[in-house]
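Tutorial sheet, problem 5. The two components below are modelled jointly, 563 residues in total.
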Amino acid sequence: MTTTATPRKERHSLYAPEPFINRIPQWLSVLMLGLLGLSAWQLVVSLELVARILLPGPTETFEEIVVTAQGIVTGDHVAEALWITLQEVLWGFLAAAALGFFLGVLTGETLLGQRAVMPYLVAFNALPKVAFAPVFVAWLGFGVESKIAMALFIAFFPVIVDTAAGLATAEKDALVLFRSMGASRWQTLWKLKLPHALPFIFAGLKSAAVFAVVGAVVGEYLGGGGGLGELIRLSAQYLNLARVFALIFYLGLIGLALFTLVGWIERRIVFWHRPEPTEIKGA
Amino acid sequence: MKPQDALPSTDTRSRSRSPGARPSNGRVVLEVDGVSKVYPRNSVRALDGIDLEIHDGEFVSIIGPSGCGKSTLLQIAAGLIPATTGEPRLEGTPVVGPRRDIGMMFQQATLSPWRTALQNVLLPIEIRDGAKLARARSDTAMELLHLVGVGEFAKAYPGELSGGMAQRVAVCRMLITEPAVLLLDEPFGALDELTRDRMNEELQRICLERNATAVMVTHSIAEAVFLADRVVVMSARPGRIAEIVDVDLPRPRTFEMTAEPRFAKLTQHVRGELDLGGQL
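Model answer (structure tokens):
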């Protein structure tokens, strides 16, 4: 009589079977879901469930992406628009990073910041910041300045909040140790709190990378100029939605590129900490 | 002696050095003189009239129920928080703030994960004298790392070290400034018991080798007795010294000794004093 056969059978009944998703490599599941989405899109278009003028198919959109790429390479007006938006995003992001870091350290490190500045920041953060776009246009005109201001305005809150939160993460024992070593406030900030805050600061910067694109485009929608946002607005007016999708694709690339760059710098600097996927926020 | 009897100070001061203690010139290194601590916020009397003298080369364990103020006492001795009345004196001078001749260690190793083990050891020098002078002490730091048996991990980052190895590095960081007294706040409390036993043996070896003067706060009776020349038993609310138990076991102590009747007798005695002092 075989005694080894029974427990094996039992094991299958006692433990839940391994989920199917665990048995296929992740890249394959990502690819398959993407293809499934594209097929559904194509199906909706092929069956003409939606008027073609309102929903261009994946092939048309892809063609438009290729045409736009050719335009960018040859340096036509799309290339110009891309360059303008890119500048707005970059300057907006850099300003947001600098201002956010400064205010974050101020609120996280000083009592004045915690007691007096923080409540204002929380109140400001609750405002629909997009609504301020016309204000910036009124102040700074229709050039890139109003868009940079908008990108900065939307992007710098997460940097402040994450920097301030990060400064509070140094262990209590480590703070006592620094005090017992006679470390000055500056030394404690520079050699203990800021390094501890770096993973948080970078999480804030990654959010800012995504928000800066949002801010620049919102600024362009409302304040004109020559950027991608303006092109999208015009294409949408002519109901050239394939072109709209193509331009949004390139906007997405700007955001992704900036996000990836920040992540790359983070891995160089914060070599001791591996960010969890859940730490990556975006909008 | 019960806490509600006469002031424990008389008991402490008149006590002669225990026969089992290490040879010492009897010089007082750290003196806690009538220290009380009252928190004005809730007027809790955390410490009440603590008198304690710690001699050169002596190892003193402080044990007591939670809330007896033993960690507060250690922080007052380190100059991290002020005493309400009385004062701690180190080498004859009052401790009024953090001092470079005090070395501290905590339950967490609190190593900086962005610094190598060697750089972590040099941190106190860097804080006090700058990065340049810290680098000049690299050889001393390496010697210390070898002393505690983690010399080959000098270039490793804390993320690559086990809990026990991290605490060994923390020991080096404490010793690099050659402090007059070591203040240890449950230094191995976060380690597993096997590692903890080994670290205690190591700590004894290092203290003997360097003739270090040390005060350790602990929750473990066995650990307190194993390491100490004297065990200070405290009672809670208000924090007072209930009894000071001399540990007359020969050094170096080994784990075989912990199975001996005199070790058991000592731990039982300490436990008895703790029970008298109130809730554990």
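Marking note: Confidence is low (pLDDT under 50) at residues 1-21 of chain B. Full credit if you identified this.
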